[in-house]
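pasting input
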Amino acid sequence: MSNITHLKELESESIYVLREVAAQFERPVILFSGGKDSIVIVHLAYKAFYPAKIPFPLLHIDTGHNFQETIDYRDALVSRLGAELIVGSVQESIDTGRVKEETGYYASRNKLQTTTLLDTIEKYHFDAAIGGARRDEEKARAKERFFSHRDEFGQWNPKNQRPELWNIFNGRKAMGEHFRVFPISNWTEMDVWQYILQEKIEMPSLYFTHERQVFERDGQWLAAEPCIKLKPTEQIVTKQVRCRTIGDITCTGLTLSTAHTLEDIIEEIAATRVTERGGRADDKRSETSMEDRKKAGYF
Amino acid sequence: MQLLRFSTAGSVDDGKSTLIGRLLYDSKSIFEDQLEAVETASKSRGNEEVNLALLTDGLRAEREQGITIDVAYRYFATPKRKFIIADTPGHIQYTRNMVTGASTADLSIILVDARHGVLEQTVRHSYISSLLGIPHIVVAINKMDLVDFSEAVFNRIVADYKKMAQTLHIQNINFIPISAKDGDNVVNRSEHMPWYTGSPLLEFLETVPVNKSASNVETDVQRAFRFPVQYVIRPISSRFPDFRGYAGRVASGIIRVGDRIKVLSSGLESVVSHITQTADELSEATPPQSITLQLADDIDISRGDILVKTDEPQPHQEQDLRLDVCWFNEQPLLPRTKYIVRQTTSETLAVVRTINYRRNINTLEKEPGVSQIKMNDIAEITIHTAQPLVFDDYRLNHITGSVIFIDPDTNETVGAGMIKTETIWNGHNSYVI
């Protein structure tokens, strides 16, 4: 009987998936957002190919609305690993007329990322995009495969996904198609943090409690930054907050909580009553927000 | 803490989704906002009580139809274990989904409605669990509240099930009477069934022994080391100019530094010089560890090769194979059709020679004289491969005994195959499967 811990087993599975990507595809790329899931993916990739370098570049789709801490962390990581960084710019997509900026109080560039992502994938001929999505995150991801086929329009069709048996992965595709691969599909939010603690991975400061100017909207605290238009009734206050999940500024809810260490974060998650993505305004738009965005080619 | 993967099978009316919702709810794995969303959705559908089944139905089409049409993975943990649930549909037209969800399961929960007992679908679900070689089956006899929590009803169903299962090769079957809706014997012991002295379901799931090898039963072949090579790591850097490591996951057995290995299919031999995980040196490795092996000799090894030990039972190397297949595609399986056959890391072209019989999975009868195999059918076929495959009987090793069929024109995965050989080491030639 095996005594392997769940974290070690999950790690082995993820490394297995990353090695399959390297073996089956010609030009894979790691989608890097600076959030904890993509940070873990990069760490796993480092382990999977050691002592060789990670055989894929990192791709960051920059909405232009990132927290500065995210950009700083990204740059430091890339420098430390000696990795290649490619940045896809949503601003550029807007400027070249590929997408139109949303307006109004609830304007966000979240949806626009899809076009920038697909354009960048096409430009660099990436045939596999590795992401840190997990199946426990959201309803529409519960059915996602490790190897998720996307058609030539980058679209995800739930009816067309290939069955995955015994961890045999079929990454065969026609020209112009690509795959999204999710090595940490079976990890939960708690697993990710426990792994970060076990591996002593350095994390962006946003995850820990800090002082910030915020305002309240629809029961959530958002960062008071120029990219969000304030309603006349909304007041800016200073609070001690942190992020449980990091998207761009317009859709990241900040929680009022004290967590100064990884152990604090883990304890808070264990006691919490709201899911990780409960603070994501982009998921709240409709019951099937994520599914609809996935169908259109989003992450 | 260990990880247990289990699949759940049952039809929409058996309460399977309610059971999962109950497991998550009672183990406090359901968060407030998820529950709130379900309460809102329940109300908008006119359900009076919170419909726990809505927690697991995710896609828009399902929510509209009220049934699950794919494999959904749910996660929860107790202080004792982490669990992954592969929630699979019960309808016969989704047999392929159940086969998929069952392929990585350590345990299968089969739901029976206490009012109806053993039905065709019970036979079907049990057969699939047995075919896929899931070592533990839990028959959860649900809706005991609707039969007055009767011990007699429970015992009768147990007897019927055991009779049906005689012809199946299932190692461990356990029976638990439950009521998913009210929570009896799911997480907490039922007050209504004092006659049941076994564990409630969750306690059983927390304590059942888990085997991470591709092999279930203990014989020499099952203990044999099998290592499909996934990827060759060659840094060719100034720090590691000569490093050549063979990366992969140990499928079965145990490998130690100093062991003599053979490469299949070349037959070349060498000795293991290093076993590493990142920068850590290990003295040995077991399933399901992902590792990197270095050898004493510089021999030609690539992805698709399988490493075995020279002093252990060897796998087969043949071009003519007999398999049980589950067909996934709308295009039926026909003799003389060519497919790509993919094992863990190796691949070859194959042509279908014969269809020996179709298995009626409701009655378990063999139907010979079938000319084609349709979607969701299970059948025995023979194939001829362009290159010899290195394999073990699926009964003895799930990794080296399993393949998928890929349509070379569409690239779709069209079928799943489990390889059968003439003799099985423990002497049992009389399986139904």
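fyi Helices of chain A lie at 6-24, 36-49, 68-81, 90-95, 113-124, 189-199, 262-271, 289-295.
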